[in-house]
Amino acid sequence: MEFGLSEEQTLLQDSVNRFLDAQVPLDRVRAFSEQPDDQDIWQGLTELGIPGLLIPESAGGVGMGCLDAALVAEALGHHVTPSTFLGTVVMAPLALAYAGADQDELLARIASGQTRVGVAVGDAVAARQDAGITSAGSRLTGKAIFAMDCPADYYLVADSRQRLFLVAADAAGLTCQGLPTIDRTRRTAELTFDATPAQLLSDDPEVFARTVDAGRVMLAADTLGAAQNMLDQAVEYAKQREQFNRPIASFQAVKHMCAEMAAELEPCRAMIWYAGHALDELPEEARLTACHAKAHLAEVGKLVAKTATEVHGGMGFTDLVGLHYWFKRIGFNRQMLGAPELVREEAARLQGLVA
Amino acid sequence: MEFGLSEEQTLLQDSVNRFLDAQVPLDRVRAFSEQPDDQDIWQGLTELGIPGLLIPESAGGVGMGCLDAALVAEALGHHVTPSTFLGTVVMAPLALAYAGADQDELLARIASGQTRVGVAVGDAVAARQDAGITSAGSRLTGKAIFAMDCPADYYLVADSRQRLFLVAADAAGLTCQGLPTIDRTRRTAELTFDATPAQLLSDDPEVFARTVDAGRVMLAADTLGAAQNMLDQAVEYAKQREQFNRPIASFQAVKHMCAEMAAELEPCRAMIWYAGHALDELPEEARLTACHAKAHLAEVGKLVAKTATEVHGGMGFTDLVGLHYWFKRIGFNRQMLGAPELVREEAARLQGLVA
Amino acid sequence: MDLSYGPEYETFRDEVRAFIETHRDQAPSSESLRSEKALAWQRLLIEHGYTARTIPEAYGGHGAQPDILKSRIIAEEFASARVNAGLGGQGISMLVPTLLEMGTEEQKQQFIPATLRGEMVWCQGYSEPGAGSDLASLRTSAVLDGDEWVINGQKIWTSTAHLADWIFCLVRTEPEAPKHKGISFLLFRMDTPGIEVRPLVDMTGIANFNEVFFTDVRVPKHQIVGQRGDGWLVANAILGHERDSLGDPNATLTRLNALTEMMKTEHVGGERLIDNPAYRDRLMKLQGRVMAMRFNDLRILSAKINNSDAHLARMIVKLQGTELRHELEGLGVDVLGELGLAYGKSPYLRDGGSWQRHYMFFLGLIIGGGTSQIQKNIISERGLGMPKEPKFEKAI
Amino acid sequence: MDLSYGPEYETFRDEVRAFIETHRDQAPSSESLRSEKALAWQRLLIEHGYTARTIPEAYGGHGAQPDILKSRIIAEEFASARVNAGLGGQGISMLVPTLLEMGTEEQKQQFIPATLRGEMVWCQGYSEPGAGSDLASLRTSAVLDGDEWVINGQKIWTSTAHLADWIFCLVRTEPEAPKHKGISFLLFRMDTPGIEVRPLVDMTGIANFNEVFFTDVRVPKHQIVGQRGDGWLVANAILGHERDSLGDPNATLTRLNALTEMMKTEHVGGERLIDNPAYRDRLMKLQGRVMAMRFNDLRILSAKINNSDAHLARMIVKLQGTELRHELEGLGVDVLGELGLAYGKSPYLRDGGSWQRHYMFFLGLIIGGGTSQIQKNIISERGLGMPKEPKFEKAI
User: Fold this and answer.
1) Residues B341 and D276 sit within 8 Å (Cβ to Cβ)
2) Residue B77 and residue B329 in contact, taking contact as beta carbons nearer than 8 Å
3) Do the beta carbons of residue C171 and residue C186 sit within 8 Å?
4) Architecture of domain C122-229
5) In this complex, is the C-beta atom of C280 within 8 Å of any C-beta atom belonging to chain B?
6) In terms of CA atoms, which chain C residue is nearest residue B347?
7) Chains that contact C by 3+ CB pairs under 8 Å?
8) What is the SS3 string spanning C17-48?
């Protein structure tokens, strides 16, 4: 029995963290927020094998599992890394695998870092009135908003009936228009389709659901990393910052704020490990744990984001220390692929608790 | 413009408080919890004119208003007073008035302190599966549970269609059986009716609703008083209690717990004043403010009850200081006449926010 | 309880309404502080007593007797008509009352009229990077050199520094004195050589504030309010006033109503947001809390008029009001789901993106003007009579 | 991640199950601690290694090597079969490990075997009315008079004092020493003259605890564990263990499931409680939190087995676990509405009235065993490396 990371997993996470520590300091994040080019970062992640993480070795990948991906997501969140990940590395390869699609060539290109895949499934998770995609045969029409990891070479798109399609970026009638969000470390877009040719990957709602589950666990893991970093920064700042002739870390109010953050956050680590593990190994538990990981990390993340900012006092509110990049990243993770109330209702439905 | 109490109102509250300070110390409350006889307290309240508070002078009462009653309720809650009040003093006289019933003789007896009226409307507020009362003509059949201010000489009873009846305690087929609750300062009972003759007071749901509104504001006011006392006790205890060679009131964690209680509780005072005033003077706002006062005080009361107990440490958990009488009283007020979620939903419905 | 303002005041309210109706075309909307339209409007408001109402005529005010209800009516009517209520800013709200209380006659004459007319714009130099909650530990120094103070140091959170003509500034003049007794309150021009203003971008992405750097800034010796070393007293003479405005429940009510409206029109999964019972319950919880804070506000107003005590009611407004507002704005973000992330020039903004922007800005207000932690210290000590933390020796 | 216990352990689990199946008739249910049935069952469990498992045979234990997983399996199987898992109590859980570590050979021989067999029942005399969070400030005194300690003072929260044969007790023997160094750890019989036990009724209405008063209680000099003045060290040698059991997420999961069941069967307004979306959302929030704590528990277990680090994960269990449980029980009360008030012998109790009783009892556990405030101090200092509060001089 071992509830924890293997040596290989620890090494993977360490190597990603080392690369990000060295190559993606806050200044690099700031630069991206002005000029959203992640080529160097993506290049570095490619050298570490990240693009092929979930792709079978037979298709040029490294054939690791969802827990490994969650550990990478945590590291990326920790460093508020501006890079494609969720669509290209996780949701697209998994959707292809879950759908049983014969796409080894595409997978090989993804694994090599040459091809990126954006993901536009938000409207099939929770439809908003501005958007919506309908399919007729293998043609898509409509609009997807807040598509993630854009622009890309391909898009993984769900229509309003949760059928999954793959669409090439240069397909007829497709336009991709960047959409700014509070989180300037992620690139989101509006995709419009006008009878755009698409390849149906699956019309099985289970394939859609499993793909979304994985996406949710990755967003939750990203929040875990980001929140842990905010807590670390808060503790560090409190130790340095003096007011009334003593470090503010010696004030009980500040100590208790930090203790409350740690007490909420620490169990989330085990939760993410389990949820990542369940995606691959425990199919009967995977959906429920994914829902709860997503919703619970959203709530804990919100608490930590606010409290860590408060510990920083006015500094936390300014751009000077850049804490807000983490705050906003956590906010992004909360709202995407289902805000907490919606995901909790889904958890209840999965257990037959909704009449 | 004066948002506050008149001199008369302050005098009323002071006189009730003075009486309760002198005659209803904690020992008297304890004695009641063993032997539930409130005759001496009721006698004292009668001397202060409380029974007739809301009864017109023409019927032998003092003709004051709901805000006055709320101030009395607050004082009673402050002292966890074991006495009839909600049914006899507030809900019954108001129901008679709202229904336009010609009951001067009964009112005079209430005003004189001779006659008490229990109240059994819970099932019409939120039906539980164990209970329910149906009426056929002017006969009632069924069961009311957690009827308040029991036993009494009369009962104000609502059937499942929110029609209000008055039933004499000696009416045929009526039995009253005491029901213990956590709050040993209140007397609740199960009433069973078997084709029991009753007098229909009103079949207007508005009369029922206004009567319940008043009851809710009184429970909220009772919580305000009880919670204020718990906060006062916590502050006092923290100033006396020393640990680590200093009063625990000098620890920032304890100070902040007390500050949070005060910050939540203080605005509730204005809320109760307004809600009490609105019952008589602002019919178009009365229902919504009553719902919110009930639900909000329930939440604030819950927080204060827990936090004040924590400030007392182990002492708060024992029977030695008796703090639990206030804790349980606040719990009682929370659950009766609609728990918070139900009352908030009603508030939403009142505003047309429920589809 | 008497919730009416009474006939005298209803007449006054009618007058204010009539004035607004007649003159609203002359009111500036988004013009600069310095526009002729803004200055003319300010003069008109002073003349009618709708701003600078109780400041003596001798100093350029309207010279009316203080009347809290009239002031409230003016504020209510201009707010509900959405018409500019005159110039604000720290010069008018903080410096003018300070000078009225602590300034010399000459200072009053020199600064108050021009400030009221909008011709002299001020910024406040209090906080420093190392002196936030512990403001009295400020280090910006002023050393007397002949007839001049020579100032070196840095200020932060100076909101209008880039627009201001003058600054009122706390500086350390007596480095040997206990920290509260070594501070002086100086006034000087912002175009004095040696002053550099740098905009301070905050988490909302906007430069709502500035940093101000002083390098050998030379200021005439007499530009001091109060005596040397009295600066802490001068600053605190009116410091309490500033916090009152943070957490205003009437502004929060406006937002609550906007949120309710949005939830009635916006849909998720084909359902109105208000029809999601979990969201609706959160909204109702907030409505109850906003209601309590509004009634608390009326109680405070009434206590001011009737000279009765509501100190605890007042003391908790900043803490509760800013937390409540932050939570309310956060519900606005939550219910919007992905749309709650839109920012900048996104076409998917709702209510101009105000939910997400205010959610962050009000976190700033929870921190600014005395953090929630400082507020809780104050409530427990001054409100509940709990002891201060004991003095301590440095190091353990 | 490997969530299976492995074949060796599955075999062991089968053995435990078989034992329980075969012998469950012999297990006591509600019999007294002292019943022959209970004592015989205890002996049988020791013999099979299902209790006192790792305690040396020389002291009456089973003498097995420590194996965390086997211990866990034993606990899991007895719990899920709802069969008595042997005697507990502070003698077995706290005194025995203390004596094993700090006792003399003679003390081990005298006390451990009889305690394990259930023939010697103990209570713990640590807390005092004036010494709670600050336990080391305890004042119960023991003065040496010839060959005897003479004890005077008062203890509180001694849960089994009315049943115990002996007490292990912290007393102040060196009043002149610094407070942590003046304490000794004494053992004495509860029938010694001068001891009075008074039941302590708590808010649940039950006497779960006692007060114990000592008046000139005379105790042989040699009944001390460790040296004079070492009592604090002796007590703390194992104090950490006690807290682990408070806030157990597996017990909380059992309650969550019970709550879910109740919400599926109980109705309000003709609707199942689970069909109220606001209640359902609260339930789901709690389910997510319980889930996180359960996985956290698995992580701690795994870290113990594999000797890896999970100190922060462990450190937060008491704080989070007791608060979570209290909230969960509180939801049980809330959804029951008026029925959530029923108490005592009410016919309207649901689940035996456990929701309202536990709601209060777990508030007691939030306070007991190190209040939430003390837990937060510990987490911030030992978990996050934040400094202690500075030392202070008395008085301001």
Assistant:
1) yes
2) yes
3) yes
4) Beta Barrel (2.40)
5) yes
6) C284
7) A, B, D
8) HHHHHHHHHHCCCCCCCCCHHHHHHHHHHHHH
Neighboring chains of A (3 or more beta-carbon pairs < 8 A): B, C, D
Is A145 an 8 Å CB contact of chain C?
yes
Q: Is B252 on the interface with A (CB under 8 A)?
A: yes
A224 lies within 8 A of chain D by CB:
no
Restricting to A residues 49-108, those with a Cβ less than 8 Å away from any Cβ of D are: 67
Q: How many CB atoms lie within 10 A of CB D54?
A: 15
Alpha-carbon distance A255 to nearest alpha carbon in chain B (angstroms): 9
Contact state of D2 with A2 under an 8 Å Cβ cutoff: yes
Q: Do C338 and A130 touch (CB under 8 A)?
A: no
- By Cβ distance, the residue of C134, C205, C268 closest to A126 is C268
Options D148, D242, D266, D327, the catalytic residue:
D242
Neighbours of D, requiring at least 3 CB pairs below 8 Å, are A, B, C
Computed on alpha carbons and rounded to an integer, the radius of gyration of chain B in Å comes to 20
Domains identified in chain A and CATH numbers: 7-111 (1.10.540.10), 117-203 (2.40.110.10), 206-350 (1.20.140.10)
Residues with Cβ within 8 Å of B10's Cβ and at least 6 positions away in sequence, in order, are: none
Q: pTM (2 decimals)?
A: 0.96
Asked if the bond preceding A151 is cis, omega within 30° of 0, the reply is yes
pLDDT tens for the 355 residues of chain B, in order: 899 999 999 999 999 999 999 999 999 999 999 999 999 999 999 999 999 999 999 999 999 999 999 999 999 999 999 999 999 999 999 999 999 988 999 999 999 999 999 999 999 999 888 889 999 989 999 999 999 999 999 999 999 999 999 999 999 999 999 999 999 999 999 999 999 999 999 999 999 999 999 999 999 999 999 999 999 999 999 999 999 989 999 999 999 999 999 999 999 999 999 999 999 999 999 999 999 999 999 999 999 999 999 999 999 999 999 999 999 999 999 999 999 999 999 999 999 999 8
The CATH number given to D247-383 is: 1.20.140.10
Q: Where are the domains of chain D?
A: 7-87, 122-229, 247-383
Structure tokens at A12: 């993977």
Rounded alpha-carbon distances, angstroms, from residue C281 to B15, B341, C336, D249: 40, 7, 16, 29
Distance CA A175, CA D179 (A): 75
C275 to chain D: closest CA residue: D277
Answer whether C122-229 and C247-383 agree in fold.
no
Residues 6+ apart with CB under 8 A from D39: D117, D118, D119
- Give the mean model confidence (pLDDT) for residues A236-242: 96
Residues of chain C with C-beta less than 8 angstroms from the C-beta of A182: 341, 343, 356, 360
Catalytic positions of C: 242
Say if D273 is an interface residue toward chain B (CB within 8 Å).
no
Cα(first)–Cα(last) distance of chain B, in Å?
Answer: 39
Which of B36, B51, B77 has the alpha carbon at shortest distance from B223? B77
With 0-12 / 13-18 / 19 or more C-beta atoms within 10 angstroms meaning exposed / middle / buried, residue A105 is: exposed
Instruction: Give CA–CA dist B267/C283, Å, rounded.
Output: 19
The beta strand positions in chain B, using DSSP E, are 117-120, 132-136, 139-148, 154-158, 164-168, 175-179, 188-197, 199-202, 242-243, 246-247
Q: Please identify among residues 241-270 of chain B the ones whose CB lies closer than 8 Å to any CB of chain D.
A: 242-246, 251, 253-254
Please tell me the distance from the alpha carbon of residue B309 to that of residue B324, in angstroms, as a whole number: 8
Residues of chain C with pLDDT under 50: 393-396
- Is D342 in the B-facing interface, judged by CB distances under 8 Å? yes
Q: What are the φ and ψ backbone dihedral angles of B156, each rounded to 5 degrees?
A: -90, 120
Write the pLDDT tens digit of every residue in C114-131. Answer: 999 999 999 999 999 999
- Nearest Cα neighbor of C169 from C150, C155, C181, C152 is C155
